[in-house]
Amino acid sequence: MDLDALTTQVDDLLKNADRALARDYPGERPTRQPIHTVYVPADKYDAETVGQWGREAETAVLTHAELFLQAIGGDEDLLARVLEKLAREPIEDLRIDFEDGYGPRDDDEEDAAATAAGEALRDSMKHGESSPFAGIRFKSFDPRTRHRGLRTLFLFLDAMGEIPEGFTVTLPKVTSVDQVDAMVKVAKAMEREVGGRLLFELQIETPQSILGTDGTALVAKMIHASRNRCLGLHYGTYDYSAFCAVPASQQSLEHPVADHAKAIMQAAAAGTGVRLSDGSTNVLPVGDDTQMRIAWDNHLRLVRRALDRGFYQGWDLHPAQLASRYAATYAFFVDGFRDSVDRLKKYVEHTGSAILDEPATARAMADFCLRGMDCGAFTLEEVSRRSGLDGDTLAELALRPTAE
């Protein structure tokens, strides 16, 4: 058999499929993924917001120190890590909200808010006081709000002067692939006007974005219609639940309709470089000790549940949720640190192990290490000391490309 000739024939047969696979499933992006997105109404945002949220979160923890310590299992080292994070980088990703969190306003009022918020974000970035990632959520492409949303987006970007790196726009209530095509057109137009590159995330909060009239998963088509501009899929807890007629008392991140939608999102995004974000809980840590403990326990559990299921990001709506977000995330990574690093070391060194790990599992363990390092749960030095692996080797094992 002439295997060279056969291989050439197979190459020719599959060349279009190979190109499509490389184009549509490029793999993980090289940049860090924030572990949360904080939503702040536009009229409540100014250049001091990030620092103020950090101080309010720290105050909540210190005021209820014994209570919070009990909630995290008495782990004083974890408490210290959380307080350090709140002082150093209280918010990883900030979204200035002109949609549901802001509501309908007079045009003059929203115009002024868009300009003021754009200037404030520009100034906070200039002085190093912003979050590492930031953006806005503007009103949806529903015909009733379309013009208002586009006007707000333009005024905000115009006030900033240029689209900065790490800036992301949230397109809410997406109902069709055509809306994603339109968002690509809008992004190109804004880039021509103000400069920079505009990336966006899709908020999956309508059943139409999960299941189309032909029975297909429209969210998959939406990803590929974005022309590599879609950074993430964010689940919208309460809108999606309401659309599915789930009663208000039962609306939750762990309701079956939520798990179904997120499973579809997860399959659609796999291999595309599009990140996943869980939604929010409206049970806030406010009030007396009993209310604080209930809310913190609930948030700690929901964050850990999402992490266990491969959702490494979620929404936070209140400063005190920052503490439980970081505590749950750090505990997740610290709990899995030794097992992942030790198994990865044995995999690389081809030494004996009671678990026969495959390359895909090694990729997941390396990605776990990189994510833990990104959020501050542990350091590269700690990983290297235990495994002997450096950052480049971890990135190679995780199939995470190097940022240019």
Structural descriptors:
TIM Barrel, eight-stranded parallel sheet, 56% helix, alpha/beta, 404 residues, 10% strand
Description:
The protein has 404 residues and is α/β, with parallel strands linked by helices. It has 16 helices and 8 strands. Helix 7 (177-194) links the parallel strand 4 and strand 5 (199-204). The mean pLDDT is 94.
From the spread of the alpha carbons, the general shape counts as: globular
Which secondary-structure class do the elements indicate?
alpha/beta
Query: What fraction strand?
Result: 5-15%
How far do the termini sit from each other?
Answer: 44 Å
- Percent range of helical residues: 55-70%
Number of helices: 16
Structure summarized in a few sentences:
The chain has about 400 residues and is of the alpha/beta class.
Question: Any chance you could write out the topology, listing elements then pairs?
Answer:
Elements: H1 3-24, E1 36-41, H2 49-63, H3 65-71, H4 76-88, E2 93-97, H5 107-126, E3 133-137, H6 146-160, E4 167-171, H7 177-194, E5 199-204, H8 207-210, H9 218-225, E6 230-235, H10 237-243, H11 256-269, E7 275-277, H12 289-308, E8 314-316, H13 319-349, H14 359-375, H15 380-387, H16 391-397
Helix pairs in contact: 2-3, 2-13, 4-13, 5-6, 6-7, 7-9, 9-11, 12-13, 13-14, 14-16
